[in-house]
Amino acid sequence: MILSMTGFASVAAELPGCSLTVELRSVNHRYLDLQVRLPDELRALESAVREVLSSELKRGKVDCRIALNRSVPGSAAVAVSVERVIQLRDAAAEVKRHVPNSTPLSVVEILRWPGVLAEPSMDAETLAGKTLALVRQALFELAASRAREGAHLRTMLEDRCRKIEAQVERVAPRVPAIHEAYVEKLSARLKEAGLDPDADRLKQELALFATKIDVAEEVSRLATHVAEVRRVLEQGGSSGKRLDFLMQELNREANTLGSKSVDAELSQAALELKVLIEQMREQVQNVE
């Protein structure tokens, strides 16, 4: 399948003490241009993020935004440190053994003790791993988005290929007749001017001019280029540059066909071909 360079993906995850969001946006570009925006806490991951993205993407301008939002103090669920509570229990028992009349600790006093209550948090190494995993998930969704867009592009390009082939099939049978009719027309005009079209010199000139207006080769190359476009679309992969080259070749043949035309129908067909090829060229700019 072919892939579009246009796509968008956004994924988010709620982590202990924070929320993490990764957004990927891509548009068409001549080569791969990565823009990575990271919060200060994750700045050290930039090279790793670039490596993950470049392993899957070949062309396009890709903007990667990673946002890390810390939870507001008191808004997250708190956790009781069992280990700390056991230490306090053992310490209280020791005090009670030495001072039997001492007042035992209340629940409120235990909860107020430093280290007993703690909001959930995540160490830097675990956060880095979660971030890269989320980047890979976003990249998977971006690839799916680009594949869907690529499928639409392929449908459009194949439709234009069919229309180009229809134009070629319409004019191809007429080429010999157009060529012969134009030679006869020139011969008639020469006779009207009092010249003998059967003279050797004039025959040579007529043959040379007839060769210059012969478009059979251009028609044949148009059909060949369209067949190659179909083959590239079927093959898929990173084919944008190849398709762009083929659009240039198709446009060249259509221009030559128009410049050589000595027939109104042939000129109309050349104009239709140029419109179709331009429509294809605009869409090919989005193919990876």
How would you portray this structure in words?
There is one protein chain. The protein has 288 residues and is an alpha+beta fold. It has three domains: 7-73 and 124-146, Ribosomal Protein S5, domain 2, CATH 3.30.230.10; 79-118; 149-284, Butyryl-CoA Dehydrogenase, subunit A, domain 3 (Up-down Bundle). It is 60% helix and 14% strand. It has nine helices and six strands; from the N terminus they run βββαββααβαααααα. It has helices spanning 46-54, 82-98, 107-112, 124-171, 175-192, 200-212, 216-235, 240-260, 264-284, and strands at residues 7-15, 18-27, 32-37, 60-70, 79-80, 117-118. The chain has a four-stranded mixed beta sheet, with helices on one face. A hairpin with a 2-residue loop joins strand 1 (7-15) and strand 2 (18-27). The longest helix has 48 residues, at 124-171. The mean pLDDT is 82.
